[in-house]
Amino acid sequence: MVRYTLAQSPEVVLTVAGKDSPKAREKAMTELMELMDSGKLDTDLADGFSPDQFIEVRELSMSEDREDPITQAVQVLNNLATLKIKVQELRSDAMQVRSAIDILFSDELVSEEQINSLKEGFKTLKSFAQLNMRFLDARSQAENARQILDEALKSPNSEVKIPAENLTSVNAEAVNGTSAATESIEIVSNADGEEPVTEIEDAIVEIPVSKSTKKK
């Protein structure tokens, strides 16, 4: 199976049997004309459009999907942008047709001309409704694409770092705590050559009390 789309209408996808070939493109052209003639597809072809101008839609392989997620994200967002433009173009006319529908449910007399105009407007209404549904679905999928691009565009300087002044303050506190602990201990050397004595400031010394003895 091979799939084709149009440059001016990327949301339109035509699927025909076989591989990409002039014959397959002719089949796609026939299918496109049938859809347009039946009113199922509302799109305008450029003058002189030929089957050679079809764009083949190819599935991304697993490796391609993993290797280049950014390209895929851009394509998703590009499709969203195209759909948004088309939805905006049809919205005004479609809403007018929607308002005219209410006349069918009233007791007001309606002319044949009004009915024919309304029937013609149904094509626009249908096209808008279909495009709008595709746009809403594409916008939901594009949220993930936007996150991928945001991650890829993130600056390396955006990582959270401890400010230098805070780091200096922490180091100073650690040094002060160490010096405070060492200040309470002092080593004294005796002049007569005895072993040095360590004096500890505010130390508590327990002196054992000898038991008194009585003569019998």
Task: Give short descriptive properties of this protein.
single chain; 216 residues; mainly alpha; three-stranded antiparallel beta sheet; 54% helix; flat; disordered C terminus; coiled coil
Report on the structure:
Among the domains are: 1-61, no CATH class; 68-155. Helix content is 54%, strand content 9%. α3 (69-101) runs antiparallel to α4. Mean pLDDT is 76; it is low at 180-185 and 212-216. The longest helix has 41 residues, at 112-152. It is mainly alpha-helical and 216 residues long. The protein is flat and about 70 Å long. The protein starts with a strand and ends in a 16-residue tail after the last strand. It is built from 5 helices and 5 strands, in the order ββαβααααββ. It has helices at 22-37, 62-67, 69-101, 112-152, 164-183; strands at 2-5, 13-16, 55-57, 185-188, 197-200. The strands form 2 sheets. A 3-stranded antiparallel β-sheet has the order 2-1-3, covered by helices on one side. A two-stranded antiparallel sheet has the order 4-5.
**Number of E-state strands:** 5
Could you name the ranges where pLDDT drops below 50 across 5 or more consecutive residues? Answer: 180-185, 212-216
How many distinct helices? 5
Helix content: 40-55%
Task: Return the string of H and E elements.
Answer: EEHEHHHHEE
Major beta sheet summary: 3 strands, antiparallel
